[in-house]
Amino acid sequence: MDHYRDEIRIDAPVEHVWELLCDFSRWHDWAPRAEISDWSGPYDQVGTTYVSKQKMMGHELKTTQTVVEVEPLKLIREHTDQGPMDSVWRLERDGDATRLIVESDYELPALIPGFIKNLLTKKWVDRNMRQMLEEFKAQAELKVPVLA
User: Fold this and answer.
1) 88 lies in a domain?
2) Residue 77 belongs to domain with CATH number
3) What gap in Å lies between CA 54 and CA 45, rounded to an integer?
């Protein structure tokens, strides 16, 4: 199983970042390479499921994610049996900003055999997740609420 971890500092309060993360109607703004559908409930509710489809090297990856843990303003943990994959979105206050940390343990389906698969998929996941975090940061910092 591979492990991914990255973090980014967002110049916005935790409450604002959490609101963007939980607003699935805006996910396409910061995760444009994924097609997300079939939400069963709000993202910040344990038991909520959704379907994610992405293309990887010409192959479609389709998974059903389930939210398995929520700590409001702090953490959302997801799981899928496809792969399998476990992911955590963690928010930490950093002064007036927010540190967003994403971790995932994953096994991608055997689209490509052998060690080549491991090399290619790790680079693909790292690159796509980094781009997604940068896009999330940009969206969160577009309209930062002014604190009184």
Assistant:
1) yes
2) 3.30.530.20
3) 24
In whole angstroms, give the CA distance from residue 104 to residue 65: 13
pLDDT per residue as tens digits for the range 38-58: 999 999 999 999 999 987 666
Strand order in the sheet with 34-37: 2-10, 97-106, 85-94, 75-80, 59-71, 49-56, 34-37
**Residue 66 predicted with pLDDT over 60:** yes
Map residue 10 onto helix, strand or coil: strand
- Asked whether residue 147 is assigned to any structural domain, the reply reads no
Q: Let me know if residue 45 belongs to a domain.
A: yes
Q: How many separate domains does the chain show?
A: 1
Condensed to tens digits (0 to 9), the pLDDT of residues 83-107 reads 788 999 999 999 999 999 999 987 7
